[in-house]
Design goal:
With about 100 residues, this protein is an alpha+beta fold. About 20% of the residues lie in helices and about 45% in strands. It has two helices and five strands, in the order αβββαββ. β2 (about 45-55) and β3 (about 60) form a beta hairpin. It is elongated and about 60 Å long. The chain starts with a helix and ends with a strand. The model is unreliable at about 15-20 (pLDDT under 50).
């Protein structure tokens, strides 16, 4: 019983958060799509996505950079860059950069 109370206190304290903050703010449960930039390219024939994750604030890793997303989708001219954010009870977080273009 004491362990479960201690564990809950630890999980819901500021010590353990996924660290993903957006213009909408943070929440216990959040799934959000946010536009980042719009470029000059006219077509959206290709799509690339690159993600980073955070587990319990213990492990955070991945490559959600724009360059990595472009490489994964074979995009050379960027039309739109979006960001996708998932945060579940500050225990799991995922941020993805999504790029559309030619």
């Amino acid at each position: 019983m004491k362990f479960s109370i201690l564990l809950l206190g630890f999980l819901f304290s500021n010590c353990v958060t996924t660290g993903f903050v957006s213009p909408l703010g943070s929440a216990f449960f959040k799934i959000d799509q946010e536009p980042v930039i719009v470029g000059p390219a006219a077509t959206f024939a290709k799509k690339g996505e690159a993600c980073s994750i955070n587990l319990l604030g213990i492990y955070a890793g991945g490559d959600s950079s724009l360059i990595h997303a472009m490489q994964r989708g074979g995009v050379t001219k960027v039309a739109i860059v979006d960001r996708s954010v998932i945060n579940i009870f500050y225990v799991f977080g995922k941020v993805c950069t999504v790029v559309y273009g030619e």
